[in-house]
Amino acid sequence: MEYFTWSLNPIAFSFGSFHVFWYGILFAFAIIAGLQFMKWVYKIEGRDEEVLESMFLYIVIGIVVGARLGHVLFYDPSYYFAHPTKIIAVWEGGLASHGGGAGVILALFLFAKKERINYLWLLDRVAIPTALFGFFVRMGNFMNSEILGVPTQKPWGIIFSRVDILPRHPAQLYESFSYLFIFLLLTYLYKTKRNLFNNGFLFGLFLVLIFTVRLLVEFVKVKQADYDTSFLMMTAGQALSIPFLIIGFAFIFWSFKK
Fold it and tell me: Is residue 18 helix, strand or coil?
């Protein structure tokens, strides 16, 4: 059986010794798309759009710091504790989505408190473009031939020739297109049904959907944690997804009860 071979250079283009990576381009697109989406939200709800640039500064810092610390603490702590100067070397790769999610939640709490905005109202709306952000980031992982799936003989397996010659589950694409669907679903619910839900519902639904996808895709993803998680009978990614799932269900239940 012939499999599709993926061999794209992660570097999109260069200026001398300065390289621009596909991952960085897609990360920038994710931020810009999120900002434009929130401008649309603020416009239709009659809110002051001037605060959005400040809010996205909070979000970007929360994502980068949270995702980096998440990777350091949950996926390769032995290496980074032995080489502490490498903790800040974000340009070398290593960002954990669970840590990034926690970082954004904390950053938005600080922003909402500063601007005196209803925190749950804000979470409901920022959750929607966050799903789109996940789509772009996982596409960036695909461009980099990273976050690989396990070997497979399924006809849709992909050979990442920059890594090896084995056909693998395109785990990045499974996640990426799932997140795009979640973004479209949440956008539809927000646009047509938002007055039917109490604050917290869309955020809870976002958590449940995103981390259900993450939990399932982990079954066909190469182990990422640099330590043994067999005693948990699950991967580190699955273990980290469970608290977010519980929180998501709690928000949904609370919103209906309220």
Answer: strand
Ranges in the chain, pLDDT < 50: none
| Nearest Cα residue to 224 out of 200, 240, 245 | 240
Those residues whose C-beta lies under 8 Å from the C-beta of residue 226, and which sit 6 or more positions away, are: 75, 76, 77, 78, 79
Using DSSP's 3-state secondary structure scheme, residue 103 falls into helix
Three-class DSSP category at 12:
strand
Distance CA 144, CA 100 (A): 19
CA distance 3 to 167: 7
Q: pLDDT of 201-253, one tens digit each? A: 999 999 999 999 999 999 999 887 665 666 567 887 888 899 999 999 999 99
Per the CB < 8 A criterion, the answer to whether 74 and 96 are in contact is yes
Strand positions, DSSP E, 50-171 = 158-160, 167-168
Q: Answer for the pair 127, 120: CB distance below 8 angstroms, yes or no.
A: no
The CA-based dihedral angle spanning residues 212, 127, 177, 143, taken in that order and rounded to the nearest 10 degrees: -110
**Cα–Cα distance for residue pair 127/129, rounded to 1 Å:** 6
Amino acid in position 235: T
Rounded to whole angstroms, the Cα distance separating 215 from 142 reads 19
Q: In this structure, are residues 241 and 98 in contact, taking their beta carbons and an 8 Å threshold?
A: yes
Task: Please tell me the distance from the alpha carbon of residue 248 to that of residue 255, in angstroms, as a whole number.
Answer: 11
The residues spanned by each domain of the chain are 4-257
Query: If we measure between CA atoms, which residue out of 25, 20, 197, 210 comes closest to residue 129?
Result: 210
Nearest to 134 by CA among 90, 163, 96, 169: 96
CA 84 to chain CA centroid, nearest Å? 25
Closest CA to 252 of 189, 186, 206: 206
